[in-house]
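Changelog-linked ticket: zinc ion example.
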Amino acid sequence: MKEIENPMVIDSLWRDREKEPEVIDECLGCLEDIVAGEDVYKFVSVTGETVRVHQNSECCQQYIGALAVCEIAGDH
Ligand SMILES: [Zn+2]
């Protein structure tokens, strides 16, 4: 019976592996994985690297907020 069960176990492992999302990059906003099929902004950062950020306001704000200096415009 083991000879029949083992191929079935291997088969189900392969199917599980195929369901795993393909990680493309890391979002520089939320620092979570970016997986295939997600909407992202891809651009060249100030350091010359190609980077990706999720296409949502939270990730963009976190990314910009980490790079930029916060100020109140016009208030010197
Ligand atoms: Zn993100």
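Closing comment: Example verified and attached. Residues 22-76 form one domain. The mean pLDDT is 85.
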